Amino acid sequence: MMRTPLLYESHCHTPLCKHAFGAPDEYAAVALARGFKGITFTCHCPLPDGFSANVRMAPGQFDDYVEMIAATREAFAGRLDVLLGLESDYYPGVEPWLEKLHARVPLSHVLGSIHYQVMDYRRLFYTGEISSYQELYFEHLALSAESGLFDTLAHPDLIKNESPADWNFEQMRPHIERVLDRIAATGVAMELNTSGVQKALPEMNPSPSQLALMHERGIPVVIGADAHVPERVGDGYITALGLLENAGYQEVSFFIDRKRQSVRIQDALDSLHVV
C-alpha cells in the first residue's frame, strides 16, 4: 500500500549537545525509512554564563549547528524535508538571551523546556522540598508559555521523574489545572514526548491524565521522540497517537516556519510505517 508522508519528527538532537550520538544524516535516514514527511532538529540551545554547559552546544557552536542541518537538508532535498529548530531551556531571567538567539536565524520549531535535573537549575531553585519543586516546575512551565518565546512546551510533566515515589498526580491536579489554564490562554502547543517510557517513571510525558486535562482546554499537541540516537527517530509514535485519541484528540500538530499545522490522527496513523 502506498503511504503519503504527512508527519514530522519534531524533537531530535545532534552530537553538539554532548549526550547525543550519530550524524544528522543518520537521523534523517531513519525518518525517511519510517514514513515521515520531514524531520526538525531541535538540539539543546547554548545558554549564557556556562549554564549547564556540559549538556548543550557552546555559544560559539551555534553557527556550526546551523551549517550542519543545512548540509543535511541539501543531502535529502526532494526526499525528506529537513528543518532547523531548537530546544531552548527556560528559567526566569533567561528571556533576553533567548530572544536574541531565536532571532539570529530563521527557525522552524522552538521547543521550550524546563530541565529540573540540571545542576545549575537545581542550585537556583531546589530548596530540598520535593512537592515545592514539583509546583515550581509547573509554575515555570506556565511562565515559559507566557514569555511568547516558544511554539511548544517539551515533555511537560518531566518533573514526575525527580522522585517517582513522591509523585501524586491527584494531589497535584489543582495546581496543574491552574497552570494549564494559563498555558491554554497563550495558544502555545504542548508536546507528547515518547522518550518518557525510558525514564524513572516509565510513561510518556505527559501522562494520560494530564493529556485529558490538556484536551479539555483545547491545547494542541505535538509528538516528539526526543531522539538522542538515530534509531529512536519516530519511536513510539503509533502508541502516542493512540494516547491522543484516547484523550479525545482528533488531530495532531507540528510546526513549519513557526506556524502550527495539523493532520487527522487516523491519517497520521495511515501514513507511518510501524514506529
Give the number of helices: 9
User: Which parts are unreliable, with pLDDT below 50 for 5 consecutive residues or more?
Assistant: none
> Which strand order do you get reading across the main beta sheet?
1-2-3-4-5-6-7
The arrangement of helices and strands along the chain is EHEHEHEHHEHEHEHEEH
What is the strand tally?
9
> How is the biggest beta sheet arranged?
7 strands, parallel
The outline comes out as: globular
Please state the second-level CATH architecture. Answer: Alpha-Beta Barrel
Compute the CA-based radius of gyration: 18 Å
Structural class: alpha/beta
Total of domains:
1
CATH topology: TIM Barrel
- Name of the level-1 CATH class: Alpha Beta
Report the helical percentage: 25-40%
What topology does this entry show?
Elements (H helix, E strand, L loop, with lengths): L7 E2 L14 H10 L4 E4 L20 H14 L5 E9 L5 H8 L6 E5 L5 H7 L4 H17 L5 E2 L15 H18 L2 E5 L14 H9 L4 E4 L12 H11 L3 E6 L2 E6 H7 L4
Parallel strand pairs: 1-2, 2-3, 3-4, 4-5, 5-6, 6-7
Antiparallel strand pairs: 8-9
Structure description:
There is one protein chain. By secondary structure, the chain is α/β, with parallel strands linked by helices. The model has no long low-confidence stretch (mean pLDDT 97). A seven-stranded parallel sheet has the order 1-2-3-4-5-6-7, with helices on one face. It has a two-stranded antiparallel ribbon with strand order 8-9. The chain has nine helices and nine strands. It has helices at 24-33, 62-75, 95-102, 119-125, 130-146, 169-186, 208-216, 237-247, 265-271, and strands at 8-9, 38-41, 81-89, 109-113, 152-153, 189-193, 221-224, 251-256, 259-264. Helix 6 (169-186) links the parallel strand 5 (152-153) and strand 6. The protein has a single domain (8-271), classed as Metal-dependent hydrolases (TIM Barrel), CATH 3.20.20. The longest helix has 18 residues, at 169-186. The relative contact order is 0.16. Helices cover 37% and strands 16% of the residues. The protein is globular and about 50 Å long. Helix 7 packs across helix 8 (237-247). The two termini are 17 Å apart.
